[in-house]
DNA sequence: CCGCGGTACTGGGTGTTGCTATGTACCGGT
DNA sequence: ACCGGTACATAGCAACACCCAGTACCGCGG
């Protein structure tokens, strides 16, 4: 992926992470790995950690430190009520965008 | 629209403008007005002008100055070959994103 | 036993982008 | 003569994803 793609991720990536956490709690390293498997091959590791810090500071997630068998303790994030609200809001905005762009793609205006 | 929305526009807005120019040439003031009509109510005027300057510098559009009946001359932008290529690339990335997010929304992973 | 690779998190600095705010300029109607 | 709508330009700001380097913990092979 190139320059344009990384710009397009802005804002969207947060929604993606919230959506992942909505299905079940997860920690940074795991999220990065999963996203890379799912096609975001160039995703930088530091990006996810920074994003997690941000959404934690905004109170969208709860954090629990869990010891790992294979390295330093994991910070497991889980979506709380405010996070679910934010996710709903994200889907609303996302749907709006998708709808607008579909119209543009079909050349309706 | 709020904070999240403006972040989500990043990168996408360029694709939107390219798509608009693909259907027919247009000038900045006109593009801003059209986008506002189509739901991007909070779109700042300066944003479009800055964006047009950028895509011009990257050689994606051709520019022609056309006198207006109601004000200063318009700078009419039209998509050139390179711009069409860039637009195709944009749609490819966009489709990828839409596909990923659809999967997340349907809770498939 | 010691380095090495995999796991896991952290932090500083950079570039791109959209927003805010302000300024310039042209025109017609009152 | 002024005001509002048309039309463009730009300097400064904040947010975000990136790059890069560092820290730390573990098990394994030499």
TrEMBL record, chains A, B:
Transcription regulator PadR N-terminal domain residues: 17-89
Query: What InterPro entries does the database record attribute to this sequence?
Result: Metal_resp_DNA-bind_regulator, Tscrpt_reg_PadR_N, WH-like_DNA-bd_sf, WH_DNA-bd_sf
Q: Which SUPFAM superfamilies match?
A: Winged helix' DNA-binding domain
Name under which the protein is recorded:
PadR family transcriptional regulator
């Amino acid at each position: 992926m190139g320059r344009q793609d990384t710009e397009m991720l802005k804002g969207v990536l947060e929604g993606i992470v919230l959506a992942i956490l909505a299905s079940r709690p997860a920690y940074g390293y795991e999220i990065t790995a999963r996203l890379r498997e799912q096609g975001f091959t160039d995703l930088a590791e530091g990006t996810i950690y920074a994003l997690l810090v941000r959404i934690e500071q905004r109170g969208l997630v709860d954090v629990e430190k869990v010891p790992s068998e294979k390295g330093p303790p994991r910070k497991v994030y889980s979506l709380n009520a405010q996070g679910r609200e934010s996710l709903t809001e994200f889907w609303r905005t996302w749907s709006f965008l998708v709808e607008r762009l579909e119209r543009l793609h079909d050349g309706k205006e």
